[in-house]
Specification:
Blueprint: H1 8-17, E1 20-24, E2 38-42, E3 46-48, E4 51-59, E5 65-73, E6 78-84, E7 93-101, E8 104-114, E9 118-128
Parallel strand pairs: 3-9
Antiparallel strand pairs: 1-2, 2-4, 4-7, 5-6, 5-8, 8-9
Length: 134
């Protein structure tokens, strides 16, 4: 039986319209209820410059949570946003929008800082120049 891989074009289309979800685990021993602490989602993996990128971060409420920091980092551009968290009373879903990102490969990083640990999730997106699509 011969198995043929899907053409790259179809794969890229599927990736572009499938939300990217990455989950991080705490640096301390998690309880069974707190196994998924921070999750980051981008609406795709590929964007055209100047890109307006809305990133969704889910944070499991915890009494010790104090700060959520979201970064978009590439070779020539760094942007960050910080949101204060109110422990177990904080909202679960946070959306941060990075506007006008120029071409580049961006590492998205979400950090949840608490009184006892730092938990992270990361994702990568690619912003291409308009000339790349012609």
């Amino acid at each position: 039986m011969v198995v043929h891989p899907r053409p790259a074009v179809i794969t890229l289309v599927v990736i572009a319209f499938t939300p990217l979800i990455l989950t991080a685990f705490p640096t301390v021993e998690p309880s069974a209820a707190a196994a998924r602490v921070v999750e980051i989602r981008a609406p795709g993996r590929f964007f055209i410059e100047p890109a307006d990128l809305s990133v969704t971060v889910d944070v499991e409420p915890d009494p010790s949570n104090r700060m959520l920091r979201l970064e978009a980092d590439s070779d020539g551009v760094f942007r960050a946003s910080e949101i204060a968290l109110d422990g177990e009373h904080a909202i679960r879903v946070h959306v941060v929008r990075f506007k006008g990102l120029p071409a580049g490969r961006y590492r998205l990083r979400a950090e949840v800082r608490s009184a006892r640990s730092l938990r992270t999730a990361e994702a990568e997106v690619l912003v291409v120049g308009k000339e790349a699509i012609h």
